[in-house]
Amino acid sequence: MEVLLEDTRGQRQFKSLLLVFLFVWNTAADCLIPEGGPNMVPTTETLLRNDFPEGSEAVLECANGYVEDSGSGILTCRGGKWTEPDLTCIKKDCGVPEEQKNMKFHIFHGTLYGDMIKVTCDEGYRINGTSYRQCIATGWFGSGQCDIVTCNKPLQVANGRSSWISEKNPEYKQFVNYSCADGYTLRGNASITCSKTGQYDSPPPECQEGEYEAVNPSKNTALILAVTFVSLVAVLGVVLFFLCKCQQKRKGSYDTREDLKPELLQFQNL
Question: Which cysteines form disulfides (predicted)?
Answer without folding.
Answer: 62-89, 151-194, 180-207
